[in-house]
Design a protein that fits this description.
Strand order of the largest sheet: 1-2
Shape: globular
Order of helices and strands: HHHHEHEHH
Distance between the termini: 22 Å
Largest sheet: 2 strands, antiparallel
Number of domains: 1
Mean pLDDT: 83
Length: 199
């Protein structure tokens, strides 16, 4: 059991302690590795490790009946820029997102930007309703996706885990994945994470 799992009688105190521990851990890994992308690729540096992390994300934050996640690769369709404002957003599970350097043409966030985003996520939760992520379609050859822990009934084309890249909002997603990775590494209980992040 990790020290992060200690739950004092005052739940609000426990959550603040948890946030402080996570924030410190993210700062430490970003200092050590240079940023969240470098941290994620250092820790999950083999196919088996990436697959294990994807399986943990899927098990820790399982799909619910109230959220229609898209897991069938055929449901991911390109949208012209002129139609973005009129196209409904789709729901994508955390385990689908890549942290490979080729996941975006933009530079990955550094330590300072990540810590600002991490503080916002730990304070407000991970909110995308007002500013959806703009994604790049799955490309497992370039993004080194891995076998997904989900299936698609009636479909032979489930989207691979860690195979979705970013046109916009890579920094937000990598910051979230880095937060989740330090929790995964320290075996933090998923209910603690959900309480804080709202994921």
């Amino acid at each position: 059991m990790t020290e992060w799992d200690v739950m004092p009688d005052d739940t609000s105190t426990a959550l603040e302690t948890f946030k402080s521990n996570v924030s410190r851990a993210v700062a430490e890994v970003c200092t050590r590795h240079g940023g969240p992308q470098q941290h994620l690729n250092f820790i999950h540096d083999t196919g088996d490790k990436r697959k294990a992390f994807a399986e943990w994300l899927y098990a820790a934050f399982p799909p619910s009946d109230s959220i229609n996640y898209k897991f069938d690769a055929r449901e991911f369709q390109a949208v012209p820029e002129s139609e973005l404002s009129s196209t409904p957003a789709i729901k994508v599970h955390l385990a689908c997102f890549s942290f490979h350097p080729d996941a975006s043409i933009k530079q990955a966030p550094g330590k300072d930007h990540t810590l600002r985003l991490a503080d916002q996520i730990l304070t407000e939760g991970f909110i995308t309703s007002g500013d959806p992520l703009l994604l790049l379609l799955p490309d497992s050859e370039n993004l080194h996706g891995c076998t997904p822990p989900w299936t698609c009934p009636g479909s032979s084309t489930p989207v691979e885990a860690q195979s979705i890249g970013y046109h916009k909002a890579q920094a937000r997603m990598l910051s979230l994945l880095s937060i989740l990775s330090v929790c995964y590494e320290d075996k933090v209980r998923p209910d603690m994470i959900k309480e804080v992040l709202g994921v």
